[in-house]
Write a structure and sequence with these properties.
This is Peptidase S1 domain-containing protein. With about 350 residues, this protein is α+β, with helices and mostly antiparallel strands. It is built from 7 helices and 17 strands. The longest helix has 19 residues.
Length: about 350
C-alpha cells in the first residue's frame, strides 16, 4: 500500500482548531496488556524489523531462539531429552502468523481495540493449526461463491484449515474475512524461497471471551499445503504421546510465536503461578490462570503455550502432564510475567 499514512482529525477540548491523531499510534495505545503488534501502511517487512529493533520489553531478544535453530542446548538440563525437543518442534511447525486488517464494530466497549472499532490499521498475532480437512460441497470462499454455479461437481477441490488463537487477536467472522494466515514463516527468506504459504480467513467457528480463545477456519485450494499440514498434525499427536514417562514435577513452559511479526521464535521458562477455578464435578477445571517466565513480545498474542510436567493436575492420573492454550497478555509485575485465561486444553482442541 506504499507509504500512505491515514490521519484522523479531532477537535481539541475547549478549542476551535482540529488536532491530528495518528491512527496507528492510537491503536498502539489501545493495546494495554495484550501483545498484538500494530503496523502502519508501509512495507510490512520493514515495519516488523523496526518494531523488533525498537522493542523496550526485551531489547536484546536473547531468549527468543529462531525456530529452526532450537536444540537440546536451549532446554533446562532436566528436560534435555529428544522426545521433549521433538514435541516442541512439532508445535512450532504448526504455529502460524495472523495479520488482521480490520477491527470489527462488534467488539464490545472496554474490550481490546474497542476504541478502534472500524479501524483498518492492521495488527499481527500468532496462532496454531488445529486440524485440516477436505471441503465438502461447493467451495464457500468469496472467489468461488461469486463465480461458480450451485452444482457440487463444478466446484474446484478445496480444503478447510482450522486455526486457534486468542479471541482478542481475532474477534469474529468479520475480522476473519480480513485476516491473512501465514504458514511456515521460519526464516526471513521463507517467502522468497517459496516455503511460506498463506491463506485467507473465512469464519469463526468457536470463541470464548472469558477464556480468550477463538477458533476460525481458512479456505484454500492448495492441496500441497493441506497434505503437509495433515502430516504435521499426525506428527504432533505422535510426539505428544511419546513424551518421556519421567519428567520433573517443576513445569517447563514453552511459547512459539511471531514476535513483532518476525519469523517464528521459541522461548522457554518456568511456571510462576497456577490458579484454578473449579467447575463441578471438581475433576474438571473450568478456568485456569498461568503466569510464566517464557518471554513474549508484541506479536506473541494468540501463540501456543504449553506446560509440560509430570505433576498430576485437575485430578487426572498419569505420569506425564502437558496442556496448551493461547498467550493472552502480560502483567506489570515483571518483565517476563504473562497470563492465560482458558477453559480449553489440547485434549479438547485436537
Amino acid at each position: 500500500m506504499g507509504n500512505i499514512k491515514s490521519k484522523i482529525w479531532q477537535r481539541t477540548p475547549g478549542g476551535s482548531e482540529d488536532a491530528e491523531i495518528d491512527p496507528v499510534e492510537k491503536k498502539k495505545k489501545d493495546r494495554k496488556s495484550i501483545e498484538c503488534e500494530v503496523f502502519g501502511f508501509g512495507d510490512e517487512a520493514a515495519e516488523s524489523a523496526a518494531a523488533w529493533k525498537d522493542c523496550r520489553k526485551n531489547p536484546d531478544h536473547v531468549t527468543f531462539i529462531p525456530a529452526p535453530e532450537f536444540g537440546l542446548e536451549h532446554l533446562p538440563p532436566d528436560y534435555r531429552e529428544v522426545p521433549v525437543l521433538d514435541f516442541i518442534t512439532a508445535v512450532s511447525a504448526l504455529t502460524v502468523r495472523l495479520r488482521v486488517d480490520v477491527v470489527s464494530h462488534k467488539r464490545p466497549k472496554g474490550y481490546a481495540f474497542a476504541e478502534n472499532r472500524g479501524s483498518r490499521v492492521p495488527h499481527v498475532g500468532s496462532g496454531l493449526v488445529r486440524r485440516a480437512s477436505v471441503g465438502q460441497g461447493p467451495c464457500p470462499c468469496r472467489t468461488c461463491s461469486g463465480t461458480q454455479n450451485s452444482s457440487p461437481s463444478s466446484s474446484p477441490k478445496w480444503f478447510e484449515i482450522s486455526v486457534g488463537s486468542a479471541c482478542h487477536v481475532l474477534y469474529n467472522s468479520e475480522e476473519a474475512l480480513a485476516t491473512r494466515v501465514d504458514f511456515f514463516y521460519d526464516h526471513e527468506h521463507s517467502r522468497k524461497d517459496g516455503q511460506l504459504k498463506s491463506a485467507k480467513g473465512f469464519q469463526v467457528t468457536e470463541k470464548d471471551r472469558k477464556s480468550d480463545v477463538c477458533f476460525f477456519t481458512c479456505i484454500t485450494h492448495d492441496e500441497g499445503l493441506f497434505t503437509r499440514l495433515q502430516s504435521l498434525l499426525d506428527r504432533f499427536e505422535s510426539c505428544r504421546k511419546n513424551l518421556p514417562k519421567e519428567l520433573p514435577s517443576e513445569s517447563l513452559m514453552m511459547v512459539v510465536s511471531h514476535p513483532h511479526g518476525q519469523p517464528k521464535k521459541i522461548t522457554v521458562g518456568e511456571l510462576v503461578k497456577h490458579k484454578v477455578i473449579w467447575a463441578e464435578p471438581r475433576a474438571l477445571a473450568l478456568t485456569w490462570t498461568l503466569l510464566y517466565r517464557a518471554d513474549t513480545c508484541a506479536g506473541s498474542s494468540g501463540a501456543p503455550v504449553f506446560e509440560i510436567s509430570s505433576k498430576t493436575r485437575y485430578g487426572r492420573n498419569g505420569y506425564v502432564y502437558s496442556v496448551g492454550t493461547f498467550h493472552s497478555g502480560w502483567e506489570s509485575k515483571g518483565n517476563h510475567s504473562v497470563r492465560i485465561h482458558s477453559s480449553y486444553s489440547w485434549e479438547s482442541i485436537f
